[in-house]
Design a protein that fits this description.
By secondary structure, the protein is an alpha+beta fold. The protein is built from three helices and two strands. The protein has a two-stranded parallel ribbon with strand order 1-2.
Length: about 70
């Protein structure tokens, strides 16, 4: 993925990140998507949330809003 390719994304993208995620750390693996995808929105699921924790029910609302 490059900043140029991410900039072409036009569908809604919801990103949830965990503060304790060591598999996909924020600076290396999340921030680039939030910075370069124009339709991306995101928030932290909490400072102690790890990569393998379940993020429900928040994603369900995102899908209901955009997929109806």
């Amino acid at each position: 993925m490059t900043p140029e390719s991410l900039a072409t994304v036009r569908v809604p993208v919801g990103i949830r990140r965990g503060g304790a995620d060591t598999v996909n750390p924020y600076d290396a693996d999340t921030r680039p998507y939030l910075e370069h995808i124009p339709t991306a929105s995101g928030c932290s699921a909490g400072p102690r949330v790890r990569h393998d924790d379940v993020f429900a029910p928040e994603p369900a609302g995102f899908f209901r809003q955009h997929l109806g």
